[in-house]
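Researcher: Structure prediction, please.
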Amino acid sequence: MTWEYPENLSPLHYPSQMKRILYIPFDHLHRKYGVLASADPKSDAVVLVESNRMCSGRNWHPERLFFLISSARHFAAALKDEGFTVEYIKAATTIDGLAAAKKKF
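Model: Predicted structure follows.
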């Protein structure tokens, strides 16, 4: 099953009934634990932020960094398939990404 936006929703238009914005760090990618354990696809929006600071702030081994980013992107796709509204944002910092998500929701 692939994710497709409903006809009346574009990627920048979200349902007004969203009650919570759930930020998921790249080291908390699990549906049954943490903030997602009690998440509801009908009322919760999920935000993942790929920040330049996170990617370049440490001397990552290239394969490890690839794994982190790839895992987050696949997890975001799985949540979309489950019915969640998911926003995967690239930003300079995590704070900048969360601020951008807050404006959208």
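Model: The helical segments are 52-56, 62-81, 94-104.
Researcher: Thanks, that helps.
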